[in-house]
């Protein structure tokens, strides 16, 4: 009897596990419940950052103050994906004016580096490591632009949480410890890297306490001296001296001349929802172009797990990414035809190129002028109705490997994204912003705030945005379910750096899709790969205007937290 009971126990466990694995996608596909609150909400990729934001809200700050506090904390606790050596993009819903405001806080290339110099060195692309990919860090100026326009709480108090944890330390989380070990192996031979990030002689292990006193000093200077402490004071002079000493080109002039830019978000309507992104030099409008193409298909009759949905989504992505490679660039240097790219007429013309039964082997960019001329994302909302969608990054993980003496942070390598092919929109030029992958998003409905969202992950981000929105709008998922549902990615499209699509590329799929679906996709001509790790990192806040309640969601594949009060 004992053996029979044991057998039945394990049989039941196996059956339950099987049912859990085979359960239908959609409303049951969630790892946790949505978090709900009325007076304030913060969703970030690290619990300490979420708690910093909530502390600011509870102390009288607003969503903008709280978002800056969370971002500063992220630079302390997750230096493998962001920091003050990188750039920032933000969309703010201001409850007083009931309008959206966009901020482009990306930095520019150095005045003293030319395309001719890069070609003289025999380069066909800018490397990801060392001094050459370093562009001016825009994050700190972005904070102060946001605070000057919308903030309430003094910056010394806003940055106090980050300063505290940089000083006393914090336990390193799982994802960070994994990335940290690879960073030391990659950058450990460069100046100040080990002294800053491996002070005990090794990359901090999971649960080990890490302190960054140099970063605490830098943040204290910024909190007291404002943005000029970073761009015109001792910090700027230290960066200049370090770059000169190590073959770099960023100077005090580059830093002093840096400015963020307030810009109007752009949108498209997808089934009654206005989806807002920022215009280039970022890639946000790729999401809008994809939604315009996909809007013509009735996904209420196309199952989520079907090869038809994945095929149509992938083909739309391929079409859009050819435009992305050709037309997305710094609009002070290139006339990107944003209005034409986002027109429904242009989407209809491009949609005609999709074969519903066969994967394309090649697409070229369209001609819209003929028609009309590693990263963190966080979101915060407050009791007044202000909502912030913020994304910030050093680009590849920790960045370039360049750690200026005594400052406690690594400079970004976003300059890797320039093309070195003459005559392209994203071709390198002095004092030019590079193509950017990091994109915040916002959704309104009938002129009212509906949702903030962002999905980290380089070139995956527009796909992530589109998948989340379709999961909610087409498949009825709530914000947490929409993020937990298995994702797909596609690689192999042309890139703004000059690479060109030569075949159909490949689809990467997370577990959760039926083998029959995968086989049908392969019959259509798609190459399929399984994802060996999570890609993307999602946070969102949805607002219920009837109950006046925020619904928060966070990435189940990472170490984040959604919380409110």
List descriptors:
single chain, 565 residues, alpha+beta, Serum Albumin, Chain A, Domain 1, seven-stranded antiparallel beta sheet, 21 helices, 17% strand, globular
Strand order of the largest sheet: 1-18-17-13-12-9-8
Broad structural category = alpha+beta
Number of domain modules: 2
Report the helical percentage. 25-40%
Number of DSSP strand runs: 19
Main sheet? 7 strands, antiparallel
Radius of gyration: 23 Å
Strand portion: 15-25%
Shape: globular
Q: What is the multimeric organization of the chains shown?
A: single chain
* Stretches with pLDDT under 50, minimum 5 residues: 1-27, 369-373
Description:
The protein is of the alpha+beta class and 565 residues long. It folds into two domains: 43-258 and 403-417, no CATH class; 268-362 and 372-376 and 437-548, Orthogonal Bundle (Serum Albumin, Chain A, Domain 1), CATH 1.10.246.130. Helix content is 37%, strand content 17%. It has 21 helices and 19 strands. Strands 1-18-17-13-12-9-8 form a seven-stranded antiparallel beta sheet. The protein has a seven-stranded antiparallel beta sheet with strand order 7-4-3-11-10-2-19, covered by helices on one side. The longest helix is centred in the N-terminal third of the chain and has 21 residues, at 2-22. The radius of gyration is 23 Å and the shape is globular. The model is unreliable at 1-27 and 369-373 (pLDDT under 50).
Question: What's this, in brief?
Answer:
This protein has 565 residues and is α+β, with helices and mostly antiparallel strands. The chain is built from 21 helices and 19 strands. The strands form four sheets. Strands 1-18-17-13-12-9-8 form a seven-stranded antiparallel β-sheet. A seven-stranded antiparallel β-sheet has the order 7-4-3-11-10-2-19, with helices on one face. Strands 14-15-16 form a three-stranded mixed β-sheet, covered by helices on one side.
